[in-house]
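Complex record, two chains
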Amino acid sequence: MSQKSAPGVRRGICGLCGGTCLVDLHCDETGTITKVEGAKEPPFSSGALCVKGAALRQATYHPDRLLYPMKRVGPRGSGEFVRISWDEALDTAAEQLRRSRDRYGAKSTLLYVGHPKWFRTYLNDFANQYGTPNVGTESSSCAYALMMASQSCFGRGVRMPQPDLAHCKTLLIWGVNPLHSGAPDRAKAYLKAVERGVKVIAVDPRCTPTTERAALHLRPIPGTDGALALAMANVILAEDLWDHEYVEQYTTGFEAYREYVQTFPPERAEAITGVPAADIIAAARLFAQDAPNALQMSASPVVHNINGVQNSRAILMLAVLTGSFGRPGGIQAPGPGRPMLKWDFMGTRLPRPLADEDLSHTQFPAWAQLTPQEIQVIRIADYLEGKGDSPIYTLLSFGMNHHMWPRPDHIEKAFSSLDFFINADLYRTPTSEYADLLLPVCSSLEREQILVQGPGLLRDVEAPIAPLGEARTDIDILAGLAQRLGFSLGDGGTVHSYEDYLRTLLEPTGRTLEELRAHPEGLPPAHTPPARTSEDILNVHTPSGKIEFVSGVLEACGAPFHEGLPVYHDFRETLPLEEYPLLLSTGCRKPQLFHSRTYRLPWLRALEPAPVVDVHPEDAQRLGLKDGEMAVLSTPVGSLELPVNLDSSCLPGVVNVYHGAGDLDVNLLVDETYLDPISGFPGYKSYCCKLEKKGGAAQ
Amino acid sequence: MSHVICDKERCTGCLACVVACLEEHHAALGDAPLSPRIHEKRTSPRTGMVCYTTRSCLHCADAPCLSACPAGALVRDELGFVLPVRENCVGCRRCAQACPHGVPRFDGEGKLVKCDGCADRVARGLEPACVRVCAAGALRLSD
């Protein structure tokens, strides 16, 4: 159902990132959006949008939108496609999937979904019924490494630290810039905390508007975060600022941890990180002394280092020392129960049959334990070329962006090893050019959605616009394939359509789709899980049943670098720094860019030149580089020409480049084996490079 | 006269206002027009942090651009806003020379691009588009 019958203002949910911000869509009599504004619905939305949401109309109607199914007619990668019908597309796709399974076995098929989370459980269900354990997602290099770190300390179900910003007195915000990334609500929550008088300790190599508002800003060399956190713990222990009762009652492994932490006095951390010892001491005191204290991290920066999981664990343990986990004002604070939606992304895991035959469990044993519903696909070029434990012949993907991984050029070559590649997406992307079949999907504005607002409100937001062209929802595509393969999706096989999916979501809430459609302002659920107390939260699901300073899961892997303690390994020992003396940090946030999604949007692209290499003026002067001139950025695996942008926000010695820019994508320069051995995440934030004026050597 | 003020202490340099202004005023989607809202880098003297700040027209009470324009491309409306009238602009740039604040800018065709105070919104009791979109609450319409 959609609101598309008359001109007027319709409500929608922006899908440019995962923020699910409500938007007002002014539509004309043809149902075309003429203007986008942020919805005004206090207290949830004030009319604000981020710069990307402000360009939502341009993103929705972009000429690169896939409008109908297509099949390849030229050589793979040539981009030559012709339009076909949905029946032919789904029949062909299903036939290929069946043939691949019959000829090579089901696990020769790799299923993949990119950024979207909302239908991942259904992709898992499809994979399980089809018979392949090889399901991968974009979380192979986003979020899941931090989740692994969290779960290794706090057990199953604790994904990322959730700071209680409304009640904390001190906030340690580590590697996040909420003023330039994430939904505006997150920016507001930070600003409100600062206004309320929360003492903020910000950790970020760069200066950002977030760090400007901090009482204390620590600027470690990217990748050295673990040493910094261990030194803060050293101070907290040495000055007896830790919560003895909490540690005694709720944790295990403290003695081994204390012994290790004692090897990181502030002076040692200063030598490793570049942060003055006096600042480390001040930060530790500020954090530990004024309870309650909260910790905020984000999905990527700390884990985009080759010691990322261990570094993250060292940071998380600061919240354990101070008794903040599970306590009001801390992280994972007690609170009211929230309505559960069935088979929604979080909270549902369907066990994979044949998980012990999947492609990544040998190389990434901790991933297999802590992220059991999918594989780590970071070695996808190898897997596609048949260099994995078993070969891959067929790839079915929903929104794959091969530029999100290191050496996308290798991955492009590897696509030619596939028998068949089916890609569903919103747009013709660089990845789409390598597919055999292209399937057009609906954007967030083209499908009805259920939203949970705050702790207690269920909303149905009808689709504000009709699907563009012949676009279908990802669920409809999966259901269409399943039906042709002889099975049905959902618990009991009840999901045959998108509407079935919506009804299934609502089952645990006691509300029907009809009720919610009749009440667009929202309704409370008829059933809500009970509130969670501190005791509930502290009853953690680790092997020991306690919060673990020494991770039983990691130790049990018995693999190199899979230490139980949050051991600090210095990435610089692995890099040829004599030849490549500058550190390269990629992906640091710019408000108008969001991975590769926004380069196609002229309104955003035109705000400033992109891509560029951001260089601190001290480094630029030493290298003889001027603002705006072309430079050659080289790493051990390649080089690119990029214009220089002088930026005193950078940490001297570290240059920054935003990723995802097609042929100028800095990911082309990152070694595909430069990975965290535990998570498989690339060391995007702490690699090495040199920079020279184009046409002349550096001075 | 009433105009949009940016509180630089609150502004986070997110640039949402620059694009929201485009969304409000520019129907076409295929190009990259100049926004009436101007964004410029600023550097924090305390830390060296570089980020953007934004500004637009002050709608001066005695606007020198109004008197300088020979072509009727600038008019004062009933609310006091100085409105650009692009169809009349001949691209002479006398308004830019006259303006002490560097507000008038010119698009690819040499025609005037300038903030109109979202006069039609204000006349209907709505806030300017930039004020609505700002998550940091840095923008407001002065009295």
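Note: Chain B touches chain A at residues 10, 12-16, 18-20, 22-24, 27, 29-32, 39, 43-44, 47-51, 129, 132-137 (CB under 8 Å).
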